[in-house]
Amino acid sequence: MWWWWWWWTDGVGAAHALVGVNKPELLPKEFSPVIDVAGFLSDGQEKRLAQEIANIEKDTGFKLRVLAQNYPDTPGLAIKDFWQVDDRTIVFVADPTFGNILNFNVGALVDLDVPRSFWSRLAGKYGNMFYWKEKGEDVSIEAAVTAISSCLREPVGSDNCSEKPWMTRTEMLFQIVNWLMGWQHDDAMANHRGKIIRGFVDAWLQAPAV
Question: For residue range 25-81, what is the model confidence (pLDDT) as tens digits?
Fold first, then answer.
């Protein structure tokens, strides 16, 4: 059994559009745990990720697979047979089409060892639009793989994978501010509004946490 989270499920507005996408012609000719049809990654990054994924599988027995896409340009359901997806597989789909770039399909055996909250926190920190627009899609992908690798290596227990990844309110606010400043860079009032925004952020950060 699989726990389908985000990508091929209801609840995110894109589920029905994704159902039925099946383009095996977009698959590579040879097996690879990383498929980048969107062009987010360099050749060097793909090789590093593939090596890290191989190490994860060797050390933990879990299979991480990464698909970078821009819907509808995706092999879609064809990856299931190509990767021989099973209950020990994590399918990580990097697709910025619907805002958050990080999406995960998690096998049942992975679900037993990794808290579901981990995936939502991971998407919240490295997948949010402000992060990948500022850092780049490739950085989001690499950061997520690193976090997954760390999590899968932790001893299973009541608090495994619980400490990270968290986005602090400081990180979140300054990512929002940087994005807003970039968005308004052609406006004659950009500097004035920037001072107002920074003043708000400074005051908010100095207030007691809630």
Answer: 999 999 999 999 999 999 999 999 999 999 999 999 999 999 999 998 999 999 999
The count of other CB atoms within 10 Å of the CB of residue 184 is 15
Write the DSSP assignment of 97-133 as a string of letters: GGS--EEEEEEHHHHHHS-HHHHHHHHHHHSSHHHHH
| Tokens 């950061």 sit on residue | 143
How many Å apart are CA 87 and CA 99, to the nearest integer?
A: 28
Whole-number Å distance between alpha carbons of 180 and 175: 9
pLDDT tens readout for residues 151-185: 999 988 777 787 555 555 555 555 555 545 444 44
CA distance 148 to 35: 18
The total of other beta-carbon atoms located within 10 Å of residue 137's CB is 20
